[in-house]
Amino acid sequence: MQYSLSLHPTLGVKLPAAGVRFRRLPVSAIAAPPLRSPVTHSMPPEKVEVFKSLEGWATQSVLPLLKPVEQCWQPQDFLPDPALSSDSFMDEVRALRTRTAELPDEYFVVLVGDMITEDALPTYQTMINTLDGVRDETGASSSPWAVWTRAWTAEENRHGDLLKTYLYLSGRVDMLMIERTVQYLIGAGMDPGTENNPYLGYVYTSFQERATFVSHGNTARMAKEGGDPVLARICGTIASDEKRHENAYGNIVEKLLETDPTGAMMAIADMMRKKITMPAHLMFDGQDPRLFEHFSAVAQRLGVYTADDYADILEFLVGRWKLEKVEGMTGEGRRAQDYVCRLGPRIRKLQERADERARNMEKHSTRFSWIFNKEVAL
Ligand SMILES: [Fe+2]
Ligand SMILES: [Fe+2]
Distance from the CA of 114 to the center of ligand 2, in angstroms? Predict the structure, then answer.
């Protein structure tokens, strides 16, 4: 069989493009060896001091990007109110079901994948707490890094809750399979290649929060076009949280570039060489060992999150951090700068070639357990 390969927007690995039927792998395939070399604690120990010295700055410049609980939206603001009489509550549920009735199955595949990604939040808090110098040492530490991480988690926690309840009420998805996928995913964890290194960790989160901002923004637009303005508002509201979080993480990296330009630039280049892997890359539903690739292929085809978005985010961050203008670096730092600043056009060129090959392939599809094993084109 002739394979057409495309640069995967999220895994950053080469995947068979549309037109290739995925070989069914045994379930044991999920117990594959780690995806990356197990490098740990790659930040030189003395650099812990950088984060210690930035605590005052973090308190002044990062924590204000959190929203006080009383000013935050809650899932209940968007959901049928269970305090209503049974009849009125059922009317609200019926209205929700009517609104979602016209949205296509493939839209639900992407929304479910996004929801599952949000719902594996324990993994992300764990991941951030692997980072040297910024982890929450006690579980209730007063360090601004730890305060941020806990409050960020608490804000994020509303995303999965809201999407999951909405999907449940819609009746369009197989909740049992979704719940199994969440359990598998939290059990599997994630492997972003951040090596306990907060330089790498905050580059990752800057990129990742922008990626979720983009994808929730796109599911909002599609919900609106598909006839569900409430779901559009839900996805849009979640997107604006992601944007605020992206600003916070982006500010941290900006500050690191100012404090330690070589270290920060090399961290950006390192993460880009590894490619930014989406947090849910180890998802599994007990049936499809290539579930994440299939979900990503649908997200790519619908334009919810694409290889172009990946390049856009990279170029956005290069501009936001003014990477071309960073000075005062060692030779290594300058080489990292050169690599990162030229990467956008290279990714786009690779993608163009892959797209052209993909166009010549015949279309294929797969079944998703999340939507009762209905078939969706990839
Ligand atoms: Fe989120
Ligand atoms: Fe987020």
Answer: 11
The answer to whether residue 214 sits within a structural domain is yes
Examine residue 23 and state whether it is found in any structural domain, yes or no: no
Q: Token pair of 98, please?
A: 């009517």
The reply, when asked if residue 118 is annotated as ligand binding, is: yes
Domain for residue 354, yes or no? yes
For 260, how many CA atoms within 13 A lie in the half-sphere containing its CB?
20
324 is in an annotated binding site: no
The annotation status of 41 as a binding-site residue, yes or no, is no
Q: Whole-angstrom distance between the N-terminal and C-terminal Cα of the chain? A: 18
List of residues 6+ apart from 148 with CB closer than 8 A: 58, 62, 63, 66, 248
* CB-count burial class (<10 Å; 0-12, 13-18, 19+) for 141: middle
Does residue 338 sit within a domain? Answer: yes
Active-site entry in 174, 241, 246, 309? 241
In angstroms, what is the span from residue 182 Cα to ligand 2's centroid?
A: 17
Any catalytic annotation for residue 246?
no
Ion ligand 1: protein residues whose beta carbon lies under 5 Å: 118, 156, 159
Catalytic-role residue among 114, 119, 155, 156: 156
For residues 76 and 88, give the distance between their C-alpha atoms in angstroms, rounded to a whole number.
Answer: 16
HSE on the CB side for 304, CA within 13 Å? 25
Total domains in the chain come to 1
Q: Does residue 118 carry a catalytic annotation?
A: yes
Per-residue pLDDT tens listing for the chain (378 residues): 233 333 344 434 333 343 333 334 334 334 444 567 789 999 999 999 999 999 999 999 999 999 999 999 999 999 999 999 999 999 999 999 999 999 999 999 999 999 999 999 999 999 999 999 999 999 999 999 999 999 999 999 999 999 999 999 999 999 999 999 999 999 999 999 999 999 999 999 999 999 999 999 999 999 999 999 999 999 999 999 999 999 999 999 999 999 999 999 999 999 999 999 999 999 999 999 999 999 999 999 999 999 999 999 999 999 999 999 999 999 999 999 999 999 999 999 888 887 777 777 666 999 999 999 999 999
CATH number of residue 54's parent domain: 1.10.620.20
Which residue range is the domain that position 355 belongs to?
A: 45-65+72-377
Query: What's the predicted TM-score (pTM) here?
Result: 0.90
